[in-house]
Amino acid sequence: MTKQSFSTRDAVRDVYDRNARFYDLAVWGYYLAGMPIRKWRRMAVAALQLRPGDTVVEVGCGTGLNFELLHKAVGPNGRIVGIDISEGMLERARALVHDRGWQNVELVCGSVSDFEFPQGIGGIVAMGVLTYEPDFDKVVERGAKALLPGRRWVVLDYKMPGGWQRIFAPLFIALGSSFGVSKDLMNRHIWEAVERHLTNTQMRELYGGFVYIVSGEAH
Ligand SMILES: C[S@@+](CC[C@H](N)C(=O)[O-])C[C@H]1O[C@@H](n2cnc3c(N)ncnc32)[C@H](O)[C@@H]1O
Question: Which one of 90, 134, 198, 212 has the minimum C-beta count within 10 Å?
Answer without folding.
Answer: 134
